[in-house]
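Example A, followed by Example B.
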Amino acid sequence: MNKIESLALAQLARKALLDKKGVNPILLDVRELSSVTDYYLIATGNSAPHLKALGEEMNHVLGPLVGERKRRAGNPDSGWLVVDYLSVVVHLFLPHTREYYALEELWSDAPRIN
């Protein structure tokens, strides 16, 4: 997947999270900072069931475009769910977990995509 396709996929994922009432989704361009992925998408869910719904929405929207997710880690009850599509990695948090891990601060050198 090239950079334009990766960005389109990341933007589609962000829109899907917004449509499912994901809170404060932030899209970070980490192409110059990471060899793991092109974009990190970070969002908050209001509860464990909401995190589960957000993760399922990612697969529903992105799955037909890229096939099934490549990896999924964590679970909604832990407060952190990661859905990996190789060029886009989606981190879904409960509010206190997002604050604790502060990925936006960890990747503060990464440009934010509006």
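Example B, a separate protein, is given below in the same form.
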Amino acid sequence: MKHAVVLDGTRCRGCTTCIKNCPTEAIRVRQGKAAILSDRCIDCGRCIQVCPHRAIRSVSDSLDRLKDFRYCVAVPEPALYGQFRHLEQVDQVLNGLLHIGFHKIFEAAKAAEILAEYVARRIEGSPAKFPLISPQCPAILRLIRIRFPRLIPHLDPLVMPMELAATLARKEACAETGLPPEEIGVFAIVPCPAKVTAAHSPEGLSQPVLDGALSIRDVYLRLLRPMEGQNNLLPLSASGATGVGVAMSGGASHARQAKRYVAVDGIENCIQMLEEIEDGRQPDVDFIELAACTQGCVGGCLTVENPYAAKMRLRRLMDEMSPTSSWPAEPEELDQEIITFSRTPQYSPAFRLDPDRAEAMAKHLRIQALEASLPGLHCGSCGAPNCRAFAEDVVLGRASADDCIFKVRERMRDVAGPESDAYLPPPFRQKKPREGSE
């Protein structure tokens, strides 16, 4: 899998800020530079937000890719609408997209309403176990595959709105233009690197339905001039307040009219909730909506506006919109084959120590023994986020025991005595006893 989150080694100073904030312990600092463990990265973008040197960034598709297709369709995520000040109606944004090179618009918000209607009409109910977990955040979906594989059966097997929108948009474009599907480019406009990666490597589909994903930040800058002084706007918006609301935490739960639900935002809070579900401590909840970003998609690291301000603007827009779109849902739009997963997400053994169980157990015991000999300060000086991760790195050959400054101090003390602590930073020096004390 090619990840959207990448590291610029020329900017990295090895400050260890990223390793302490990564929710899956996917980053290490070795020889003064950070490195990402690809199999553990979930593209949540947390490292992008906290890096003080802007050494970590997200790589998305360029608008130049539109030139590769004869007909291009934009699939804007509703979080895009919350980025603009004084926006009076969604059509201002959608008409602007036509000016920057797109031929057709199919809103992800409209697809979200189609998914909600499918859930309402679903007679047999979801095949997943209760409580159902929303799979609409790809970072959470990958997190479950890596850290919480026992919760995979709880995923409600529905595609993301942008994936459904892409499928329907390509079908409509083929019918309207007579062009073959391969000459039609469908691009999502997304708020986070997780959705960029999902556009190219979907978790619940056997093959991608999108041709690429553009960041909201890049599109925002291109839209500013075309949106100035617009007159005679084309009525392009086909979604209602329900679809636009999915950009915010709790929006998907509201769209599907869930009664007993919990909406959680922020990757740390989501991990805590998943741990509780795994332990069976959420018996009274039927549906759980998890968003890795603060306040939902409006808090994605590829946006330009403060998530709380964006949320306020979206609510203001929603107050002027009808609850749902006025278009009737056609039977084919509720086709289970295009709305549900075409493949079941599988466990990703990113934390497996060894394919052989006996060898894995032996490594586990060595890790435990080494961890017990470490100070347990989780200082990050070794380049790992905590002592447990460092012990694992040593056993797996990714690091040397000498990378721990406390291990080095022990050996130096044997040779040079207690004064060898002088080279350590003050917080790590051994406290000297006061005169007169025993």
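On Example B: The chain has a mean pLDDT of 91.
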